[in-house]
Structure formats: structure tokens, C-alpha cells
Amino acid sequence: MRNKLYIGAILFFCGSAMGSFLNCICDRMIRKESILGRSRCTECSCVLEAIDLIPVFSFLFLKGRCRRCGKKIDPFCFFSEILGGLMYVLICRRFDCCRELAIYLISGSTMLLIAFYDSKSMLIPDWAMIFLLLIRIVHCFLMKEDPVVFLIRLSGSFLLSLFLSAFIFYGERITGKEMMGYGDVVLILILGSFMDLQENLLTMFLSSLFAMIYGIPMIKKKQFHCIPFAPAICLAYLIMFLYDRQIMHFYLSLFQK
């Protein structure tokens, strides 16, 4: 029992460090700064020391404020660390195979980066999508996936993406307003190739539900005129990766007498 707690704590620390790192990368890329160099306070520009950079604990110990200038630290930093830590723990609990575990840890980290970037800039970086596609190809070869199964999943993902593209194209012309971005469609095409069409349809429902949960309050507060959809997509697919059997069993049981 103690060993599991120790391992869980180490995994959470590694995940929270990765979440903090990915959030830092997103901020620097959005500001068009170099991703190299020491971390600094965004308010007073002082160089952060080791005590300021301990994931989760530094934020709590410093009460969410810079140790030098006393200005508030963006709560999203703390949120990204918690989210990264939880993701690593849950993925490691779900996958036992070392190869599969490595693939899903890298995939999850990439999805986390995409979600952070889109939530901050309403854009999805092309290089992150390409990297996610390469991960999918590696997954196919390392896990020795049946080519027929892969083609069936890819075809279902392509049909779903094609339907969404048509929906966006005609929806924007009818309403005259910008709808879901085509970057979201490409993201669904890549992530959807991991799953069957039935699982993809259920994941799209979860994505829409998550987007409504966090998006409607944002629009009411006039924080955004539109909702970043990539975070909802990544969250829904991550949940399906982790709990696909349980979710599908629950979903199918709703239609059984």
C-alpha cells in the first residue's frame, strides 16, 4: 500500500512538473518569446529560483503570489500543474504495457499542450498536430495494430471529420457567424483514429457537453465571444482513452431492457 502511495506521489509530481512546463511553453510561444532561458515573474521580471518552481507546493506556500513583488500569480499555473499530475497518475493506472504507457503519456502531454494553447489563444499550433499524428503512426507499428482495424477506425474518423467540415461550411454561410474552427476538425480526425466510430460519436457528445459546461458561463461574463473547443475535445478523448470500456458499457446499458 505504501509503495503505491509513493509511486503515485512520484507520478503526480512528474505530471505536475510537465503541466507547468507545457503551460510555460504555451505562454512563451504566444508572446513570441524563446522557450529557452530561466523562468521569470510576468510582473516584475525577476528570475525565479528553485523554491519558486516546485510544482503545486510553491503556489500554495507562496499563497499564489510572487515572492519578490507580491503580485498575484495566474491561477492557471496552479491549475495546469494539478491537471498534469492527475493525468499522469490516471494514465499510469490504466496502461500496464510499457510501450503503450509511453505512447499515451506522450499523447496526453501533447493534448494538454494543445488544450492550454487553444484556451489562451484560440489557436492550435500546426507542429503539435503533426507531432500527434506521428505518435498515432508510431502507436500503430509498436502495438502491431491490425491494418484492417486501423483502416476502419481511420475511415470512421474521416467520415466524422468530413461531416463536421460540411456542418461548419454551411453553418457559417447560413448564420454569417464563425463556428467551430477547422483546426478542431483536424484534431478530431487524428484522435478519432484511435477509436471506433461509435466511440467517436460518444466522445463528440462528451466534448460538446464539456464545452457547454465551461463555455456558457464565459460567454455570459463576456470573457470570450466564442468558446475554445480544443480543451473539451482533448478532455473527452482522454477520458475515453482511460475509461472506454466502462463508458461504453454504461452507454449500451441505457438501451437494454
Structure notes:
By secondary structure, the chain is mainly alpha-helical. It folds into two domains: 1-94, no CATH class; 97-257, no CATH class. Helices cover 71% and strands 0% of the residues. The protein contains nine helices and no strands. The longest helix is centred in the N-terminal third of the chain and has 29 residues, at 2-30. The radius of gyration is 20 Å and the shape is globular. The mean pLDDT is 84.
SSE layout and pairing:
Layout: H1 2-30, H2 57-61, H3 75-94, H4 98-121, H5 126-142, H6 147-175, H7 182-192, H8 197-220, H9 230-253
Helix pairs in contact: 1-3, 1-4, 3-4, 4-5, 4-9, 5-7, 6-7, 7-9, 8-9
Distance between the termini: 40 Å
Helix content: over 70%
Structural class by helix and strand composition: mainly alpha
Radius of gyration: 20 Å
Helical segment count:
9
The major beta sheet can be summarized as:
none
Average predicted local confidence, pLDDT: 84
Write down the overall geometry: globular
- Estimate what percentage of residues fall within beta strands: under 5%
Domains (count): 2
SSE string: HHHHHHHHH
Indicate the low-confidence ranges by residue numbers.
none
In short:
By secondary structure, this protein is mostly helical.
Keywords summarizing the entry:
257 residues; mainly alpha; 71% helix
